[in-house]
């Protein structure tokens, strides 16, 4: 039995080619990852609010398709997709998943809030792969969900499609995080679960001298937290420090 510590189900957005890779690479021994995918009839020319919300209409069906593998927790690893309509929207997504899967669930948005609260981060920098107008969705979400948090700086790469984000190399996440960082920031968040960031988290933390979070990393962290499983082997200090379960 490979999943002797638990099974994590993940519901992946239609064009995401990175999430499954990073979740499987980061999952500790005894935890297995099982994916389903949202359906979208056609691939849009550009990522928009309407595109994000229309794909989420399939969330309950996609989550229910994981039920036969009996997941211990289900995650929706999608930063923009879980922030697109504010803090109440992400809680509704969780309710849909828990109803469909019959187990605890979490979104990337809620995972980020939990990480920031756990580590007492009040000043954050954001590196995002999207156009600036979509990055503002995330800053607006955080402003409403955590009024005491300040997004002190941000950098948007400007990729227009979800599939295009998945084609970005890891060094693009490194460069974007360095551009996003500022002396005021206590931590840097690399948004986008279709952006390969896990490989550069340790290097960034060494170079910047502060915590750096990746979207898949924090979503896995929150999933493991719900399992009561300690991660001790990175990437990033968040997954090496199990004090959140102490």
CATH class of the largest domain: Alpha Beta
Strand order of the largest sheet: 2-1-3-4
Query: What overall form do the CA principal axes indicate?
Result: globular
Give helix and strand order, one letter per element, not per position: EHEHHEHHEHEHEHHEHEHH
Tally of extended strands? 8
| Radius of gyration computed on alpha carbons | 16 Å
In the CATH classification, which architecture of the largest domain applies?
A: 3-Layer(aba) Sandwich
CATH topological fold name of the largest domain: Rossmann fold
Instruction: Flag low-confidence runs.
Output: 242-246
**Binned strand content:** 15-25%
Look at the structure and give the mean pLDDT.
95
Largest sheet: 4 strands, parallel
Give the N-to-C terminal Cα separation: 27 Å
Give the domain tally: 2
Give me the secondary-structure category.
alpha/beta
Instruction: Give me the number of helical elements.
Output: 12
Q: Helical residue percent?
A: 40-55%
Question: Care to describe what's here?
Answer:
The protein is α/β, with parallel strands linked by helices. The chain folds into two domains: 6-110 and 216-245, Rossmann fold (3-Layer(aba) Sandwich); 111-214, Rossmann fold (3-Layer(aba) Sandwich), CATH 3.40.50. It is built from twelve helices and eight strands. The strands form two sheets. It has a four-stranded parallel sheet, with helices on both faces. Strand 7, helix 10 and strand 8 form a beta-alpha-beta unit. The radius of gyration is 16 Å and the shape is globular.
């Amino acid at each position: 039995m490979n999943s002797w510590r638990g099974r994590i189900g993940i519901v992946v957005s239609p064009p995401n080619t990175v999430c499954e890779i990073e979740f499987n690479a980061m999952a500790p021994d005894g935890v297995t990852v099982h994916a389903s995918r949202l359906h979208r009839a056609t691939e849009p020319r550009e990522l928009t609010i309407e595109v994000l919300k229309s794909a989420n209409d399939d969330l309950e069906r996609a989550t229910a398709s994981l039920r036969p593998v009996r997941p211990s927790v289900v995650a929706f690893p999608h930063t923009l997709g879980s922030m697109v309509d504010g803090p109440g929207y992400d809680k509704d997504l969780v309710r849909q998943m828990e109803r469909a899967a019959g187990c605890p669930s979490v979104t990337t948005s809620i995972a980020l809030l939990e990480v920031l609260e756990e580590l007492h981060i009040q000043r954050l920098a954001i590196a995002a792969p999207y156009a600036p107008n979509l990055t503002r969705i995330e800053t607006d979400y955080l402003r409403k969900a955590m009024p005491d948090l300040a997004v002190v700086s941000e950098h948007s790469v400007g990729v227009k499609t979800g599939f295009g984000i998945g084609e970005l190399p890891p060094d693009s996440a490194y460069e974007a995080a360095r551009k996003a960082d500022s002396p005021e920031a206590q931590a840097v968040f690399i948004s986008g679960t279709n952006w390969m960031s896990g490989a550069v988290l340790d290097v960034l933390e060494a170079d910047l001298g502060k915590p750096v979070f990746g979207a898949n990393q924090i979503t896995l962290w929150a999933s493991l937290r719900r399992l009561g499983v300690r991660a001790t082997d990175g990437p990033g200090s968040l997954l090496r420090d199990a004090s959140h379960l102490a």
